[in-house]
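Minutes, project check-in
Item: structure for the 88-residue chain
Input as provided by the requester:
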Amino acid sequence: MRHARTIPGQSRRIANFILAWWNADDLGGFDLADIFAVDGTIGQDMASVFTWLAGRSVAEYPDAYRAEIETIIRLWRPEIWARAAQTA
């Protein structure tokens, strides 16, 4: 999660990946071509998540990281965060 805030040039792509997993309809999807624009280790981590998810019999979400994901939403989707705050 911290990489979505700290790696210049890659943070946006990492955030897009995490936010697409969290809620792609509202927060945007993840362009698979972006895997070529991240560090190899990060790309492998993304592939591990895909593999892990593919093996689940039901949808799994990173609920344990909600606070970190909300921080990513505030940073990368401030307009969506502001809209959600107005309706809360």
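Outcome recorded: The first helix runs from residue 3 to 6.
No further action items on this chain.
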